[in-house]
Each structure stands twice: as structure tokens, then as C-alpha cells.
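Title: Prediction job returns without error message
Component: structure pipeline
Severity: low
Priority: P3
Assignee: unassigned

Description:
Job completed but the reporter wants confirmation the result is attached to the right record. Sequence as submitted:
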Amino acid sequence: MKIRILFVMILGCVFLGAGSAQDIQEKRPINLNGIWQMCFYCSPSPDMPGELRAGRSLKILSDNGRFCNLVMTPAGAVIIGCGTFRLVSSSFYTETVEENVHLPQLKGKENKLYFEMEDGGKLMKVKYFVETDAEGNKIDAWYHEVWKRVEEASSYPGDMLR
């Protein structure tokens, strides 16, 4: 009987220890800083999202609280927006937009972006609300974006174009 009680106590300690380790991992601070590449899902079926593919847009979230959005074109990179950003909570951050050629109606405004981190912080799903278009017409639209963190290569990719 005493062996059973001892066995149950040991199992309890193991499970409690695993639970507290999981709690510590979930309380890891959120780090948005880095270079993010916009992605999109491509699927042959309307019923499933399909494969995540890289797009030509980059978002740079700097350590100093600045952001810059770029688009790669055949002629080279073009900055389409910039400003400052601030992490407000574990589910949203704000961008104070100084310039934006894609959504000029956001210039001079604070844009609230809701986000969810996935894949260990490598993927960020973002949504934000835009009330009007560039001409001031009411559109009341939610934009949904998927951004993948750009990681440093461990070695030089031989097939890269420079």
C-alpha cells in the first residue's frame, strides 16, 4: 500500500513539473522585432487554405520602435510605408503611420493591429480595420495578413541571385 502511495506521489510530481514548465514557456515575452515577409495561402480547393507561399512584401520592425514596409519589384525594392510601432499587449500592437502609399488614408494615424503568433513565433497572423478609402469613402473593411519571420541562413545559398 505504501509503495502505491509513493508511486502516485512521484507521478504527481512529474505531471506538476511538466505543467509548470509549460506555463513558463507560454509566458515567454513576445518579440515582434525583426524582418517579416508577407505570405499567402495557395490551394486548388476553396475548402482548405493550402500551402503557405512567400510574397514580395517585407516588414521591418526595428529595436528602436520604427517600422518600414517594402515591396520587391523587378526594378528593385520600394518603401511603401513607415512610422513607429508599439507593442500594447500580447494580442495587438499599434503602428503610427508617417507614410503609406498603399493605404494613404492611414497617414498620420495610429493603426491598431491584432495579431496571433504561431509556429513558435515564426508566423504572425495580423488583422486590422480600415474605416475609409483614400478618398474618404466609408469601406469598413478588415484586412488579414500572414507574415513569416525571415531567419538568418546558416550558410550562403549557392543558387541565390545577387
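Comment from assignee: result matches the submitted record. The two ends are 72 Å apart (CA to CA).
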